[in-house]
Amino acid sequence: MVVVMSEDRSRDEIWDLIVVGAGPAGLFCAASASGGNLKVLVLEKKSSPGRKLLISGSGRCNLTHDGEARAFLDHYGDAGRFLRPALLGFTNRDLVAFFEERGLSMTTLEGGKVFPETQRSRDVLTVLLAECEARKVEISGGKTVTSIEKSEEGFLVACGNDIHRSRFLVIATGGRSYPATGSAGDGYSFAGALGHSIAEVGPALAPVRIRDYPFADLAGISLPGARVSIFRGRKAKEGVGDVLFTHDGLSGPGILDLSRDIRAGDLLRVSLAGLRKKEEMERWLLARSEEEGGRNLRSVLAELAVPARLVSRVLELLEIPQDLKCASMTRRMRIDLADRLSGFPLIVDEVGGYDSAMATRGGVALSEVDSKTMESKLVSGLYFVGEVLDVDGDTGGYNLQAAFSTGLLAAKSIRRRLAEIEDGR
């Protein structure tokens, strides 16, 4: 439900809480903070709420992930420690219970990903909007916030000529990925104007384009459990996950989860044949040559479960004959082949842009936000939740879980603060 208020009312009303942004973090925070006589307003720049949520998980909404809550902390890069109070205070099981208690059952699919049983993002949004309506949250669509100022009584939030006043303010504007849904990075400007530092922003959970890519015609080939190493002079980061060859580069969880740390010009080394290191691979090739010298090299390499077309391309790039017998493999051939199979070198041309990235790295600096409440350490009464923070999770439902968990943590703090104000009157 979207409520469009009259201009006169918006000028005169003093809200207990204004939430800027009607994504999952903003809606859940608003619903959780409301109740009783509290007046809560959500301002959304698009005409309807939850635009990005509706395309989450290709419209299926990968809401969270299965497993122990503490295991979540390892899936947010360096931000796991900051998110600890939020994620352990409202866990994946709590999130599932919230929706199931409201009639939307959940199911766990491939790799532990949790989806609504209906496989429809819209059903998740419907539950959130119903909760907001039941708790008398007002949602005003088509309201582009143009400025935010601190005032004596709290905050002045301008939407063009309309001024909204509130005691507390939550910025839940998301990041910059999929800007057509409304997440264009507005929150960074608001936070900056209020004195906050913004960690460098860029695409995350994004595919990468490769310079002089040699595998364009092999698009669709997948490497399960590949090791991906990032080199920038020296090794900067390493991860393991499925890698997918695309027509111009690499994708799949093994790339997407590392993309927060990948930059243009980086050297990626991708293992094509499991997790063997170069020395192990060279010893394996030598042993095969000595034991089965009469076999075709391609036949032997098939034991590594490397796709046949990929084996042929690697041999072609190394100028090794396709019909070479193992016994005829020179030491130089063996060293080069071991090097490529254990970590094929590829130079990053660019990381996919915001139109293809599923999340945003960077955002409001975590050192300036209280991890136990999500309140600004610089501006009393100001809160940040969801992707506007310098937080981005791995694929698999981790970002939505963080959105809900931070949203609830902020809501609890705001309710306590409002109760203290009421008691002090």
Automatic annotation (TrEMBL):
Protein name per Swiss-Prot or TrEMBL: HI0933 family protein
Domain named RsdA/BaiN/AoA(So)-like insert: residues: 203-358
NCBIfam families attached to this UniProt entry: aminoacetone oxidase family FAD-binding enzyme
All copies of domain RsdA/BaiN/AoA(So)-like Rossmann fold-like, residue ranges: 16-412
Keywords: FAD, Flavoprotein
PANTHER family per the UniProt record, alphabetical: OS12G0638800 PROTEIN (PTHR42887)
Cofactor(s) listed: FAD
